[in-house]
């Protein structure tokens, strides 16, 4: 599952309670954002140490803000203390986010290569990291310099391409947002609160254009056709069918992000329970 804001910003007690429930329900890994600090948040360690089996992954730690040496040291210590429980997800983020923070966003692919070189020098093994990858070059880098790829805001068609590019032996874990709401108008309204921001980011729109989505589809918060392709919605069974398209396309795991109608950031426990009953 992928729950970026609640697990990173909520109190330690509330975040751990959510993680324990997800573990009990049978989910295999929790993904959440590392934010924009130089070092990885202690929350990753807190959740690993407070649970018994469930994995924890950064989705993502940005290469423009974190230090390769410090990130490598954190990941290596986690692997030493809790083997196989922590996975480092690295990504190049977006120019509007990076430049807005006073950093010069240029040549993200080259920056990623430099970061991986430095992480290698600091002793971080490729099998302990994955890359946020959309385009062919970053997917190839995920194959050659990492354990696999963690695409975000993509369709099942992209998942199929990603599997072809990275090959059969690399981890493929796309994020997929979902809405548990059977009414089409209500479900798409919730979905569009999510798509509106991401369709303003060129990394995502350029990737979608590669798969034939038009300017009309990408305008505003997206056409019905695009929203339906990106975000499975409906009953738990209907959402599970949408997630299954990614598995059929080659995903090893799907990082499920549940979208809700409320403005308050809360853990959607009921939705994850309903999905677990169908998926697990």
Explain what the structure shows.
With 280 residues, the protein is an alpha/beta fold. It contains 14 helices and 9 strands. Strands 1, 2, 3, 4 and 5 form a 5-stranded parallel beta sheet that branches. Helix 2 packs parallel to helix 14 (269-279) and helix 13 (236-249) crosses helix 14. The longest helix is centred in the last third of the chain and has 15 residues, at 184-198.
The count of domains is: 1
CATH class: Alpha Beta
Radius of gyration from CA coordinates = 18 Å
Instruction: Determine the fraction of residues in helical runs and give it as a percent range.
Output: 40-55%
Q: Which CATH architecture would you pick?
A: Alpha-Beta Barrel
Strand and helix order: HHEHEEHEHHEHEHEEHHHHHEH
Number of helices: 14
Categorize the overall geometry.
globular
Strand content: 5-15%
Distance between the termini: 12 Å
CATH superfamily: Luciferase-like domain
CATH topological fold name: TIM Barrel
> What does the largest sheet look like?
5 strands, parallel
Q: What integer is the average pLDDT?
A: 92
Structural class: alpha/beta
Low-confidence stretches: none
Q: Tally the beta strands.
A: 9
């Amino acid at each position: 599952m992928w729950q970026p804001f609640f697990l990173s910003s909520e109190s330690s007690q509330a975040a751990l309670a959510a993680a324990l429930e997800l573990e009990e329900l049978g989910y295999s890994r929790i993904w959440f954002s590392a934010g924009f600090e130089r070092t990885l948040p202690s929350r990753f360690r807190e959740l690993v140490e407070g649970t018994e089996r469930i994995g924890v992954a950064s989705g993502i730690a940005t290469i423009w803000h974190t230090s390769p040496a410090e990130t490598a040291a954190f990941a290596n210590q986690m692997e030493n203390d809790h083997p196989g429980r922590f996975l480092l997800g690295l990504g190049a983020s977006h120019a509007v986010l990076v430049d807005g923070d006073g950093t010069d966003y240029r040549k993200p692919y080259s920056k990623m290569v430099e970061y991986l070189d430095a992480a290698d020098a600091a002793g971080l093994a490729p099998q302990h990291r994955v890359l946020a990858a959309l385009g062919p070059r970053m997917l190839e880098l995920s194959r050659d310099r990492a354990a696999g790829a963690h695409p975000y805001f993509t369709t099942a068609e992209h998942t199929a391409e990603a599997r072809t590019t990275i090959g059969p032996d690399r981890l493929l874990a796309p994020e997929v947002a979902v809405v548990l709401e059977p009414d089409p108008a209500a479900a798409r309204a919730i979905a569009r609160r999510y798509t509106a921001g991401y369709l303003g980011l060129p990394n995502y729109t350029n990737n979608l254009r590669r798969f034939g989505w038009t300017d009309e589809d990408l305008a505003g918060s997206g056409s019905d056709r695009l929203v339906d392709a990106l975000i499975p919605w409906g009953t738990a069974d209907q959402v599970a069918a949408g997630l299954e398209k990614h598995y059929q396309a080659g995903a090893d795991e799907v990082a499920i992000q549940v979208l809700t109608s409320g403005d308050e950031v809360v853990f959607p426990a009921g939705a994850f329970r309903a999905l677990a009953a169908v998926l697990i």
